[in-house]
Design a protein that fits this description.
By secondary structure, the protein is of the alpha+beta class. The chain has 2 helices and 13 strands, in the order E-E-E-E-E-E-H-E-E-E-E-E-E-H-E.
Length: about 180
């Protein structure tokens, strides 16, 4: 039995779940998310607790069991608390700034790079343009936008300059040895 799949999902106050066919809609204080799940998966709602069950122990149903429960749990957490991803900018002259709701990055190119927030997302710049926070209710979208921001200038191994996730370790190289 899937350890993740059999765990119940308790709904916080203010979160409503609507089950129609194979579509799960979760509404909360931060917004609304909708997800189509596999029609074989059985989702039950009793007294503010969601449970996901599988019809058989076939390989496909076992693999979908934990996935379905995790996707629904991510939606519940997203509409109640939200998700945040923190990025740090290292390097002389590298900085970020807010241009209205748009994120503006200056990371060593001849031009600034702009990122528009998706629906139900926002950016925040702190620490004099060296820290970027990506906020949103959709866990997948927050991670995707953070990855796109990091991709503009990934950290390089010699000086460590670039955009990295908070807490990311960048393996450093020694560089040239020089003549003796």
């Amino acid at each position: 039995m899937s350890r993740i799949g059999k765990a119940p999902i308790s709904l916080p106050n203010g979160v409503n779940v609507d089950l129609k066919g194979s579509t799960v809609t979760v509404k909360g204080p931060k917004g609304t998310l909708q997800q189509d799940i596999h029609p074989d998966m059985i989702v039950d709602l009793d007294d503010g607790v969601l449970t996901v069950q599988r019809p058989s122990d076939s390989r496909d149903h076992r693999s979908l069991h934990g996935l379905t429960r995790a996707l629904i749990n991510n939606m519940v957490v997203g509409v109640s608390d939200g998700y945040v991803r923190v990025l740090r900018i290292e390097g002389v002259g590298y900085r970020a700034a807010m241009n209205g709701k748009q994120l503006e990055l200056n990371v060593g190119y001849s031009h600034p790079i702009y990122f528009d927030p998706e629906k139900d997302m926002s950016f925040e710049v702190e620490d004099r343009g060296k820290t970027i926070r990506v906020f949103g209710i959709d866990k997948q979208m927050v991670g995707e936008i953070a990855a796109q921001i990091r991709k503009t200038r990934p950290p390089e191994p010699y000086k460590g300059k670039g955009v990295r996730y908070d807490g990311e370790y960048v393996r450093r190289k020694a560089g040239k040895a020089g003549k003796v």
